[in-house]
Amino acid sequence: MLKKLQIVGSNIVDIPTFYAEINRVFMADEGWALAESLDALNDLLYGSYGSITGSEPVELVWHDMETSRSALGIETTRSFLMEKLQGPTLFNAQLIGGQLNALDRGTGNTYFETILEIIGDHHNITLVAA
Q: Which one of 36, 56, 92, 123 has the lowest number of neighbouring Cβ atoms within 10 Å?
């Protein structure tokens, strides 16, 4: 049976509100919230907790996707990466510098594009822009 989940893109104005929306959609029945982490998002989509059970087929409808694309675009991504550079012992500064350079050249992924790649890696999930 196909499970249908819906993201309200107009609720997303930055990275924290993206995760608030993800928690609303995927974690409503859990006693805890997903952290603001792309790795955590990827883990969630494997289906060992939250709304997805295992590899069941899921239709993920993302309303107002263009609003989210803009909110999680270049400036948000740059701020996210620059913040990581403030903790160079925690993160690979050379890698992050390369990501910033690629972003400035127009060849690097935005936070939004990375989210789409993560969702795309889960073949049981069909993403529908609405």
A: 123
The answer on pLDDT for 115 being more than 80 is: yes
Indicate whether 13 pLDDT > 80.
yes
Q: Are 51 and 25 in contact (CB under 8 A)?
A: yes
CA–CA distance, 130 with 56 (Å, rounded to integer) = 22
Written as one letter, the residue type at 49 is Y
In DSSP terms, 129 is beta-bridged to: 62
For residue 112, give the 3-state DSSP assignment. helix
For residue 18, which amino acid is it? Answer: F
Q: What is the pLDDT of residues 69-110, one digit of tens each?
A: 999 999 999 999 999 998 767 889 999 999 999 999 999 999
Other beta carbons within 10 angstroms of residue 7's beta carbon come to 22
Note the pTM of the prediction, 2 decimals. Answer: 0.94
Is residue 41 within 8 Å of residue 118, measured between CB atoms? yes
Maximal C-alpha separation, the chain: 46
Beta sheet of 58-63, edge-to-edge order: 3-8, 58-63, 125-129
Nearest-angstrom CA–CA distance, 10 and 116? 17
